[in-house]
């Protein structure tokens, strides 16, 4: 069986290839790409295109995995010990707040302020893949810090999507979704096994939540958190390949397919949306993460692990600027009614995440060399 590092690296490569393929296709023949993305499939009542199915449906699988990771970390992992978890948790909060404030500063007083959540997110799959690829000599504490930070960051992004990017809530479908989740949780508590029990319940919870107005991916997180701890490892092993090799790459494919025709360097460097995303992810993330970590260690009893240096935290801070999956999702939710701004936001996330990844790779390579000595 492949190691976690190998799986993370392979998943990151597939994710990158999917996004690059979509970007090339969209710029060679945008009409055929958009026809595929906008093709409606499935239950007519939902009126969902392939692109929307990937964002609303497939990403629910990814968020189910996030829920499993959260449950594991809360019960058995690094979030169980508050003293150990305090610094990365604070770092995650700072890494969300500072980028959002930077975006708001550039977009103050404009309708584009709604996009403040875009630079908040860290892509857990991509960042772990980069760390596995470049940071092989780094102490395990670096991965634990990044994983804790990314998990808390994902939780923050989930709350932001549920609270701030939900226009209206329909109570009857919401009640049905909650009932389905209650049944799911009771079956897990009774340790009932068999996918044939849970798949119909998951489908009802997803569909009802979608109809309630809340983004349907929240159903995935909720089910992950409701899992019996005895079943976490088995569920993760079964779902992770589907998420890494299919769900997230397909979403990335449809989300990254933006035509750059009509966009100039001047547009990118003068638009408050692109500047807010760029500065938020590339600068706001490391400033928020390192700055908050330093303040917490100075003002509270919390301490950085003796195995870590501030150079390690700085490298992780830069790497956390890779927003990608969740940033693209929030961008779609924020600007779905303004296609031109959504396309600019998508391009900005791709450029910013790529730049952050390049800087992080260089920084991690230096840290890797230092530990090799």
Molecular structure report:
76% of the residues lie in helices and 0% in strands. α1 (4-28) packs across α5 (124-134). The protein is mostly helical and 373 residues long. The protein is built from 15 helices and no strands. It has helices at 4-28, 30-37, 50-75, 82-107, 124-134, 140-164, 171-189, 195-212, 217-226, 232-256, 265-270, 272-299, 310-319, 324-335, 339-372. The chain is globular, with a radius of gyration of 20 Å.
**Mean pLDDT score, rounded?**
88
Indicate the radius of gyration in whole angstroms. Answer: 20 Å
Elements, N to C (H/E): HHHHHHHHHHHHHHH
| Helix amount | over 70%
List the total number of helices. Answer: 15
- The poorly predicted ranges are none
Give the DSSP E fraction (strand runs of 2 or more residues): under 5%
Q: What is the molecular shape? A: globular
How is the biggest beta sheet arranged? Answer: none
- Give the terminus-to-terminus CA distance: 30 Å
Let me know the number of strands.
0
Q: Which structural class matches the secondary elements?
A: mainly alpha
Tell me briefly what this model is:
The chain has helices spanning 4-28, 30-37, 50-75, 82-107, 124-134, 140-164, 171-189, 195-212, 217-226, 232-256, 265-270, 272-299, 310-319, 324-335, 339-372.
Please render the helix and strand layout as text.
Layout: H1 4-28, H2 30-37, H3 50-75, H4 82-107, H5 124-134, H6 140-164, H7 171-189, H8 195-212, H9 217-226, H10 232-256, H11 265-270, H12 272-299, H13 310-319, H14 324-335, H15 339-372
């Amino acid at each position: 069986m492949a190691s976690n590092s190998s799986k993370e690296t392979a998943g990151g490569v597939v994710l990158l290839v999917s996004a690059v393929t979509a970007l090339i296709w969209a710029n060679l023949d945008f009409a055929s790409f958009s026809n595929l993305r906008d093709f409606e499939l499935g239950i007519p009542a939902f009126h969902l295109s392939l692109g929307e199915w990937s964002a609303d449906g497939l990403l629910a699988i990814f968020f189910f995995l996030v829920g499993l990771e959260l449950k594991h970390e809360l019960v058995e992992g690094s979030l169980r010990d508050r003293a150990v978890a305090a610094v990365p948790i604070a770092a995650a909060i700072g890494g969300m707040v500072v980028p959002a404030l930077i975006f708001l500063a550039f977009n103050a007083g404009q309708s584009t302020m709604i996009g403040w959540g875009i630079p908040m997110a860290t892509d857990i799959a991509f960042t772990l893949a980069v760390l596995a690829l470049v940071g092989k000599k780094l102490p395990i504490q670096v991965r634990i810090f990044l994983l804790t930070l990314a998990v808390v960051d994902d939780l923050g992004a989930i709350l932001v999507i549920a609270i701030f990017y939900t226009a209206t809530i329909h109570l009857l479908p919401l009640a049905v979704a909650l009932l389905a989740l209650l049944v799911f949780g009771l079956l897990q508590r009774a340790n009932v096994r068999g996918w044939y029990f849970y798949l119909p319940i998951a489908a009802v919870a997803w569909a009802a939540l979608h109809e309630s107005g809340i983004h349907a991916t929240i159903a995935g997180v909720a089910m992950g958190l409701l899992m019996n701890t005895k079943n976490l490892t088995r569920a993760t092993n079964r779902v992770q390949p589907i998420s890494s090799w299919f769900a997230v790459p397909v979403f990335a494919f449809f989300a990254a397919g933006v035509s750059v025709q009509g966009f100039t360097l001047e547009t990118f460097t003068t638009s408050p949306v692109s500047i807010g995303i760029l500065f938020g992810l590339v600068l706001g993330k490391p400033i928020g993460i390192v700055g908050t970590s330093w303040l917490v260690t100075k003002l509270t009893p919390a301490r950085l692990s003796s195995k870590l240096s501030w150079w390690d935290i700085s490298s992780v801070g830069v790497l956390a600027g890779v927003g990608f999956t969740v940033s693209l999702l929030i961008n779609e939710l924020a600007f779905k009614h303004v296609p031109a701004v959504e396309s600019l936001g998508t391009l900005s996330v791709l450029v910013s995440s790529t730049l952050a990844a390049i800087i992080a790779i260089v920084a991690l390579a230096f840290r890797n060399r230092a530990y090799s000595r």
